Amino acid sequence: MDRYNVQQAISDWYQINKRDLPWRGISDPYKIWLSEIILQQTRVNQGLSYYLKFVAVYPNVDSLASAKEDDILKLWQGLGYYSRARNLLAAANQIVKQKEFPASYKELLKLKGVGEYTAAAIASFAYEEPVAVVDGNVYRVLARIFGISTAIDSSTGKKEFLEIANSILNKQDPSTWNQAIMEFGALQCIPKSPNCSTCPIHTECFAFNNDRIDALPYKKGKTKQQVRHIYYYFTRFNEQTIIKKRPAKGVWGGLFEFPALEVNHEIPIDKAIAHIKSELEISEDDFKVVLVQEPMKHILSHRIIYCSFIELELTQFNYKNGHNWIVIPLNQLHNYPVSRLMEKYISNI
User: Fold this and answer.
1) The pTM is what?
2) How far apart are CA 237 and CA 239, in angstroms?
3) Is 193 left (phi over 0), alpha (psi -120 to 50) or beta?
């Protein structure tokens, strides 16, 4: 297959079909970096509003570096993969400390939360450095066009795909080319049921000509999802409630939530209530159960979570800080960054 023809066809397609996005056509490394972090594991139509919010609140790296982590997490709320938000703040402080934005692929890799793909994207978009980007869209386009059956989640596959991506890179205009091939994968060569009849290179596409569209790209296997059951305790006492901050590492790292019991299997509600009685050190006379919500199913990339909220009205509560709980007024609950699950529940309080 003539790789120049592939490059030309995708470039021509891009000029006609590209979306008008605020981080395109600019060379500001801060805004490009911000957009790339937001778009990690996130679709453009979901990430766009977050990008606009962040640029409005934090228009440059200095303003972002001076922000509080809780404020960053609150603005990020609902986008998921919250380690990205914490890494964003850490990287901003790295940049401010070194007094200039890294200006090469090699230097960009030193930033917290920036891997090979993100570094290549920033280096090519902001500085026209001739480095190829390889994201999920690019893997799919290359695998189908060139008939590559090597697993994309293997070290051999990653090396092979990167070599091919670099071999068709337009080194005179790497920014436009990298955006073109990613856009082509996002809009034309989509994961399921692509409209191959409108594809400008379908006659040269290996997958189209060999009925392998659904088989490529090949991945060794998905990570098995763990099942977790969470029983949240929403307590009311004198127009106050209790929250706590999750550890930085793990699911919803750094976000706030109600005290909870998290287990690997479903348990009877009376056992969950017995647990919170023990945690709060209260007796049967000190509370009443106001509401027990039916479990909600929440699917994350590596976990399936069944979540129940148990609402308790306390008549007596002697606060002890052994659990690192925070007692706050109910009317301030919405000020804290929380998971989407918590956000949905709080919105109905």
Assistant:
1) 0.83
2) 5
3) left
C-alpha distances out from residue 11 to 281, 294, 344, Å: 67, 52, 43
Strand partners, 243: 326
Amino acid residing at 230 = I
Q: Which two tokens stand for residue 183?
A: 């856009």
Task: Give the rounded distance of the alpha carbon of 102 from its chain centre.
Answer: 23
Tokens representing 324 are 């690192």
Among candidate residues 36, 129, 183, 257, the one labeled active-site is 36
3-209 falls under which CATH superfamily? Hypothetical protein; domain 2 (1.10.340.30)
Confidence of residue 167 (pLDDT cuts 50, 70, 90): very high
HSE (side-chain half, CA atoms, 13 Å) at 283 = 1
The torsion of the CA quartet 132, 133, 138, 139, rounded to 10 degrees, works out to: 90
Question: Where exactly are the structural domains of the chain?
Answer: 3-209, 226-346
Regarding beta strands 260-263 and 226-236, do their DSSP bridges make them parallel or antiparallel, or are they unpaired?
antiparallel
Tens-digit pLDDT profile for residues 58-117: 999 999 999 999 999 999 999 988 999 999 999 999 999 999 999 999 999 999 999 999
- Whole-angstrom CA distances from 143 to 132, 150, 160, 208 are 15, 8, 10, 11
Instruction: Please report the pLDDT score of residue 188 as a whole number.
Output: 97
What's the pLDDT tens digit per position in 240-296? 999 999 988 888 889 999 999 999 999 999 899 898 888 888 888 888 888 888 888
Q: For domain 226-346, give the fold.
A: Nucleoside Triphosphate Pyrophosphohydrolase (3.90.79)
Residue 213 · residue 196 · CB < 8 Å: yes
Catalytic residue at 36? Answer: yes
Q: Report the residue count for the chain.
A: 349
For the chain, counts of helices (H) and of strands (E): 14, 8
CA distance between the termini of the chain: 61
Whether 222 has a pLDDT exceeding 70, the answer reads: no
**Mapping DSSP to helix (H, G, I), strand (E, B) and coil, where does residue 287 land?**
strand
